[in-house]
């Protein structure tokens, strides 16, 4: 029979310290570059305790991924209940510098690593991630700024655009600063960036009702040439 005795307060605190240290480690180095001994040192614990709580590096990574996925879902739920439009979800809170917006910054950087080198094998986590994006698509459909754009493009493509815009200042801050011709981006730079994205989304109007132009002679020649060469044996 499994022991259902709750962990002692000290054990729970050590597990939380390890989880926080792991979040920083995986954010900085990705799964492949992360080291359990560094996580243990940052958490003021030993490697044996890390393995006791999480079992393996892979399971620790999955715990981090699950924690952040659930955290972002909870944020979206609270924002939706508060009536915050979807396109305002990503603007950093007043007084926060980009690197201090921990949940958003960490999440985007972790997703960047995961996109470059997928590491989680937990299909449940990947399902939860897809569900999060489906929730965002639903919220986008009720955002007044997106109504005109939704007449031309499906919600999931517009969500992809917003997510990509979110990654630029948070996952690649040095690139974002370089694009602004600055040494480092400020909080106001990030706010201005998201205001630009919102205005851009609002500016997308319905598709014009214009007949498709006839193919140019050059396009016609290429098509004809292709049909000829394809018949050669």
The proportion of strand residues reads under 5%
Low-confidence stretches: 96-101, 219-233
Mean pLDDT: 81
Share of helix, binned: 55-70%
User: How many strands, which pairing sense, and closed or not: the largest β-sheet?
Assistant: none
* Radius of gyration over C-alpha positions, nearest whole angstrom: 23 Å
Please, how many helices?
11
Class by SSE composition:
mainly alpha
For the termini, the CA-CA separation is 72 Å
Q: What shape does the CA trace take?
A: globular
Q: Which H/E pattern describes the elements?
A: HHHHHHHHHHH
Count the beta strands: 0
How many domains would you count in the coordinates?
Answer: 2
Keywords: DNA-binding
Protein name: HTH tetR-type domain-containing protein
Pfam families: TetR_N
Organism: Frondihabitans sucicola
What does this structure look like?
With 233 residues, the protein is mostly helical. The protein has two domains: 8-55, Homeodomain-like (Arc Repressor Mutant, subunit A); 57-208. The protein is 68% helix and 0% strand. The radius of gyration is 23 Å and the shape is globular.
